[in-house]
Amino acid sequence: MAANSKTPANWDVFVRGIWKENPVFVMLLGMCPTLAVSNSVINAIAMGLATTFVLVCSSALVSMLRNFIPKQVRIATYIVIIATFVTIVDYTIQAISIDLYKALGAFISLIVVNCIILGRAEAFASKNTLYKSVLDAFGMGLGFTFALLCLGVVREVLGSGSLFGVQILPDSFQPWGIMILPPGGFIVLGFWLLLFAWLEERRQRGNAEGDGANA
């Protein structure tokens, strides 16, 4: 029974970062890379996976060292830990693809100051076990990647007529150039935020009607 009671709680820790507390669509964190690199699906996935790697590794290390890090220097320590894994990601992407590295540009290095990573280290990993911290970080990372992918698909299809760099729309289609520019990121993000707000409103209304029926 004890194991069964823990499973829903652990599942909730993982899932909330993907949907209930999505870092982009709900908490509005990490807006800079979200708008900057989501002009193509490949860039969006690469940034999402890089951020997820740093998020999981840094949260795991912070959780393991949480009883040894003095409170007075905890933020500085977290930044050093995060910067270490960002450096690993930076050199790895350079080794895999120079073109991808150039496309992501300075936003790889800026993962160090991403609010999502530092926030989860301070708010969750520093107060919870290794297992829960990894679950939380992985869920948040997947939620961030999901958000980037949502923007990347729309912006690449409408802005270039392609998906994963492969042309999918006919030659007669006139690409919407604005979609691959920063204003396009704001427009698409606005529509996704509107959709998430509408879905959340429907969910809350359904819960309220269910509670009323039970009463």
Written description of the protein model:
With 215 residues, this protein is mainly α. It has one domain. Helices cover 69% and strands 2% of the residues. It contains 8 helices and 2 strands; from the N terminus they run αααααααββα. The chain has helices at residues 2-15, 31-36, 41-65, 74-96, 98-104, 115-123, 130-160, 182-214, and strands at 162-163, 166-167. It has a two-stranded antiparallel sheet with strand order 1-2. A hairpin with a 2-residue loop joins strand 1 (162-163) and strand 2. Helix 7 crosses helix 8. The longest helix has 33 residues, at 182-214. The chain starts with a helix and ends with a helix. Residues 1-5 have low confidence and may be disordered.
Number of strands: 2
Beta-strand percent range: under 5%
Give the rounded overall mean pLDDT. 89
From the N-terminal CA to the C-terminal CA, the straight-line distance is 30 Å
- Helical content (DSSP H or I, runs of 4+): 55-70%
Largest sheet, spatial ordering of strands: 1-2
Summarize the helix and strand pattern as letters: HHHHHHHEEH
Number of domains: 1
Whole-angstrom Rg? 19 Å
Sheet with most strands = 2 strands, antiparallel
Number of helices: 8
- Judged by helices, strands and strand pairing, the structural class is mainly alpha
Shape: flat
Low-confidence stretches: 1-5
